[in-house]
Design a protein that fits this description.
heterodimer, A: alpha/beta, 31 strands, globular, B: alpha+beta, 4-stranded mixed beta sheet, two-stranded antiparallel sheet, 8 helices
Chain lengths: ~800, ~240
């Protein structure tokens, strides 16, 4: 989230798209309903009428996989009817930037496409710079090569009629959604967008969010109270785990993982530090070398920076290590061992039969979990002959979250400290203790037997335990960071001397020279003289009270800033656009309200002022986003499996850069009469993820006991299915059974003149328990993914449904 | 008699079933062997093991489709027909806490004609365990309330649907909420507010949610003489 949960209550309009917020994030509706109490409009756009739709003022159905068409139509509507917030667009976005002559877009493909590599050379997507290296701009937005005009041209094709044809949303519904949401383009109004996996789990997942971001920038909804792009995260601490570098392509704090092509830290810094010639752009990532140096020092405080950098694992250039790829290469025998830690990929991963088969190629697997899972038991699962599976599986039972002290970071980026409610039961251990003991053993083995490259193991600072027990405070302090050498620095207007061991109070003081450490720079400031995440202080100023801001409650990264890009909530002089709900305000030479995006004066001060979007190189919101792998503007492509052979926008049916694999497990059904129905997966309130914890909670299982398939009465009649019947569902990848829920909440769509049926299934079940519960929805899902993130397309694929 | 009252604002209910699960958890009730029968409503009905159940209804009202959620539970009637039936058979089998107004089934319910007690209830709430003959329903979490805590279902509700407190305070809240939604929901009403301690605000007509939402909407199938007697005796009160 750029904003946070309480802030939803500040919105004048809430667009929930690709999310079933009421069911899957029940607490969101505490705040959504408070906004509604104050007169806000709730809009829900979804293939299916859900418990969220039940509270929406406007509900519009769209076929799964047509979000960019829907949002592209909204962009066109906003531009065509002059509903954008002009000052905001001119001053705070790259609308006025001039794009180079080499940039082009023809029939679904952007310039620079290499058909052999199925990838873009992005060099033609650059901006034009003047002789001083500053990007050329046209603040009148009339230059045909400026972003604004290119965007207008790009979305000119997204007429109401074309969008309706491909999405199946009636034109009247499109009109109502566009009109209601575009009303937030007035400076005094704000609109928020809530999304979840309904937007991201597509081969155009990142571009779905880009399209939402463009709408928000055009309407001036970024940085304001009741605005923003708000990802409702799929589990309590998924924000925290991403912040701490769980994914392969980033180190903690969103620092790119080094590539093997960058052998020295100097080379890494040169290639990963953006630079700008514009003095008013803060270009915050220009500080990256400080964060990388402090990260290296958090692991290897005794080594010099280049040595420490040398120890870090490197990615092979051009090689993908994302989730689906791991299992694709596992199937080919690439791994001997696998740790499935607090996860259940045999049920959670698209193309589950492929995933389960891949596990048979391992020599060993360690599964760390609270319960038996489909992963730990894959060898005795459906279709497996235990005698033929060589994989040796070790099961380490672990403590549950309530039995561990530590922090979780919620969707609103709040780091919240939790105390252990009770001691771990039986012989279970907290995950921290398991990894602590594991590494102690690994290090002892290296000491005894040597190894190929022992130094990174031998020299790692492994002081994470107290009396041989994992110590979450030690780790939290290390994430925050300390001074390693005495250093005198300017803090405010005064000099301050820090001694070795002193906590670093904020990331602005982190250094490139190795004199500071910080495990995760964005968390610098979270554990200083005290544990800031443990704060529960409700004190606020009258200004903060207007927008439900509680700066003393827990701690929020970065630097306790509750609303990101809040410099865009004020005009260039620092006056809030929405004085009734101000986020920050420039008063008597300083900022009041939330922690501003940097201390500098407002933008109108051309000497010291800065642009609002400090994390982008040029300081502007990116209407034109040249960094993505599949194009600078979102473009509609069909899902890899879809019910149509063409669409109104181009001849390019699907995303030409989508992540795909080869082989028998990768057959895709498009316009295949054997798999005629669109299918989407989703969650219910009562279960969580693959259901490992909730299927083992009897009261929750009682409420949602079995795999089900929701379908329209029309489809049920066509297939002779009655409500409550058992049905068989199949895709090219496998089949499963489900109980039919025949409901008017699901309706057929008219897409390109044809009737298209959609069905939906939850992904919470698995064969281990309960015995009559059904198996994982991911048996049906394709292993194809987004070209930027690799996230699988589990929200739109093709199936058949028949009576069992 | 002031006592306590629930106010259930159905304009805020998202059907999350936190209340249903919290009830089972506090009461430590065993689970029922459920299966999906083509509905999300599960368990399908109240039982001696399920004292609170969220009912899901799909319906079209004035041409508009609605998915309605109704967290069903004992209304703790001010003059409870179930207690009148009980009193006529086994004194003190069903008691009313003078402090809170909670209507509570005791172990003496074993001696009652369970069918008559259930038929006496205009809301079809009481249930019996066939094995032990004990009767069960919501007891307002009377133990928690006396300890200064909210009923378990109210404590867990994330949206402000379930509210609980002194009767005057709850009735004031109910009237305020009704007035607030009236402009957008002209048919909204507070159900049986003058005679029960669990007052529902229904944005849609009460009968759209479930047949036993409102007193008198649907007569129990077979009224025993005792139940009928109890109902007739029940005084009508004007909601002030």
């Amino acid at each position: 989230m750029t904003n946070h949960w309480i802030d939803i209550a500040n919105a004048d309009c809430i667009l929930i798209m690709g999310s079933n917020a009421a069911e899957n994030h029940p607490i969101s509706f505490k705040w959504a309903l408070r906004a509604k109490d104050k007169g806000a409009t709730i809009i829900h756009v979804d293939p299916r009428y859900t418990r969220t739709s039940a509270h929406a003022d406007v509900f519009a159905r769209l076929r799964s996989g047509s979000d960019i068409a829907f949002l592209g139509g909204m962009i066109r509507y906003i531009l065509a009817n002059n509903l954008y917030f002009k000052d905001y667009v001119v001053n705070y976005t790259n609308a006025s930037f001039i794009v180079g002559d080499a940039y082009d877009f023809k029939d679904g493909l952007f310039s620079g496409y290499d058909a052999a590599k199925k990838a873009y050379d992005k060099s033609s997507w650059n901006f034009v710079k003047d002789e001083n290296g500053i990007i050329k701009k046209d603040p009148t937005l009339r230059d045909p090569r400026c972003v604004f005009q290119l965007m207008r041209k790009h979305y000119d094709r997204y007429t109401m009629q074309a969008v309706s044809e491909i999405s199946g949303t009636p034109e009247a519904d499109l009109q109502l959604v566009y009109q209601s949401y575009a009303a937030t383009g007035k400076p005094e109004k704000s609109g928020t967008m809530l999304y979840a996996m309904g937007q991201t789990q597509h081969t155009v997942g990142v571009q779905n969010i880009r399209a939402m971001s463009i709408v928000q920038l055009l309407l001036g909804n970024m940085g304001v109270a009741g605005g923003g792009i708000n990802a409702l995260r799929g589990e309590a601490n998924v924000q925290g785990s991403t912040d701490q570098g769980l994914l392969f392509h980033i180190l903690p704090g969103y620092i790119p993982t080094p590539s093997a092509a960058m052998q020295t830290l100097a080379e890494y810094n040169e290639k990963n530090t953006p630079a700008t010639k514009d003095p008013q752009s803060a270009n915050w990532w220009g500080n990256r070398p400080k964060y990388m140096a402090s990260f290296i020092k958090s692991l290897y405080p005794e080594q010099d920076l280049e040595t420490g950098y040398g120890y870090l694992p490197k990615l092979e250039p051009g090689k993908d290590y994302s989730w689906l790829t791991l299992f694709d290469v596992m199937l080919k025998g690439a791994f001997k061992g696998f740790f499935a830690w607090g996860q259940n990929p045999a049920a959670s991963t698209a193309n589950a039969n492929k995933t389960r088969e891949a596990m048979t190629k391992l020599d060993w697997m360690v599964t760390v979990n609270m319960f038996e899972t489909e992963t730990g038991s894959f060898w005795k699962g459906p279709g497996m002959d235990p005698k033929k599976v060589k994989t040796e599986v070790f099961f380490l039972p672990c403590a549950v979250s309530f039995e561990k002290e530590g922090s979780i970071s919620n969707s609103g980026r709040w780091m919240q400290w939790r105390y252990a409610a009770q001691k771990p039961s039986g012989d279970t251990k907290p995950d921290g203790d398991i990894i602590y003991e594991l590494f102690e053993k690994i290090r002892a083995l290296y000491a005894k037997e040597g190894g190929a490259y022992p130094d990174p193991i031998r020299n790692l600072d492994w002081d994470v335990a107290t009396h041989h027990a994992f110590d979450p405070h030690k780790v939290a302090k290390r994430i925050n960071g300390v001074f390693l050498k005495e250093k005198t620095l300017k803090v405010g207007d005064a000099d301050k001397t820090f001694k070795p061991g002193d906590p670093v109070p904020a990331f602005a003081l982190l250094q490139t020279d190795g004199s500071t450490s910080s495990g995760t720079w964005v968390y610098c400031g979270s554990y200083t003289d005290k544990n800031m995440a443990a704060r529960r202080d409700k004190t606020q100023t009258p200004m903060q009270a207007k927008i439900g801001l509680y700066p003393g409650w827990s701690w929020c990264w970065p630097v306790n800033r509750r609303i990101l890009y809040n410099r865009a909530s004020v005009d260039p002089q620092g006056k809030p656009y929405q004085p009734q709900k101000p986020v920050i305000e420039w008063v008597d030479g300083k900022w009041a309200g939330d922690v501003p995006d940097g201390p500098w004066p407002p933008m109108a001060d051309t000497k010291a002022g800065k642009y609002p979007f400090i994390m982008t190189t040029e300081g502007m919101g990116l209407l034109f986003g040249p960094g993505r792998n599949d194009g600078p503007f979102p473009e509609h492509y069909e899902p890899l499996e879809c019910p149509v052979g063409e669409h109104p926008f181009s001849k390019q049916l699907s995303n030409p850069t989508a992540l795909k694999f080869e082989g028998a497990t990768e057959v895709h059904a498009t316009c295949d009469p054997r798999y005629p129905f669109v299918c989407s997966t989703y969650r219910v309130t009562e279960h969580w993820q693959t259901g490992v914890m909730t299927r083992n909670s009897p009261w929750l299982l009682e409420a949602e006991p079995q795999m089900f398939c929701e379908m329209s009465p029309e489809l049920a009649e066509m297939r002779g299915i009655k409500n409550g019947d058992k049905v068989i569902m199949e895709s090219t990848r496998g089949s499963l059974w489900a109980k039919a829920i025949v409901t008017e909440r699901v309706k057929p769509f008219t897409v390109m003149g044809h009737t298209v049926h959609q069905v939906g299934i939850p992904w919470h079940y698995g064969w281990t328990w309960p015995k009559q519960g059904g198996d994982s929805a991911n048996i049906l899902c394709p292993s194809v993914g987004d070209p930027n993130t690799g996230i699988p397309e589990t929200k739109a694929f093709m199936v058949n449904v028949k009576k069992a | 008699m002031s006592g306590k009252t629930f106010f259930v604002d159905l304009s805020r209910c998202t059907g999350c079933r936190g209340c249903q699960v919290a009830c089972k958890q506090w009461k430590n009730k065993p689970v029922e062997p459920t299966e999906n029968t083509g509905s999300h409503q599960n368990p399908p009905d109240l039982s001696w093991q399920t004292l609170k159940v969220v009912r899901f209804t799909e319906t079209t009202i004035d041409g508009k489709f609605h998915w309605l959620f109704f967290p069903d539970q004992c209304r703790h009637c001010l003059d409870a027909p179930c207690k009148m039936v009980g009193d006529s058979e086994v004194p003190e089998a069903i008691v009313q806490d003078p402090a809170t107004g909670a209507v509570v089934f005791t172990d003496k319910c074993k001696g009652l004609n369970a069918a008559a007690v259930r038929e006496g209830c205009p809301y079809d709430i009481p249930r019996v365990d066939a094995a032990t003959k004990l009767m069960y329903k919501c007891d307002m979490c009377n133990d928690r309330v006396h300890a200064g805590l909210l009923p378990s279902c109210v404590k867990t509700c994330p949206t402000g649907t379930m509210n609980f407190g002194d009767r005057d305070e709850m009735l004031a809240m109910a009237k305020e909420r009704l007035a607030r939604i009236k402009p957008t929901h002209p048919k909204a009403e507070l159900v049986d507010a003058s005679s029960v301690r669990c007052v529902f605000l229904c944005p849609q007509p009460p009968s759209a949610y479930y047949k036993y939402v409102q007193f008198g909407d649907a007569a129990p199938p077979l009224l025993t003489r005792k139940a009928l007697f109890a109902k007739v005796l029940r005084p009508l009160r004007a909601f002030g």
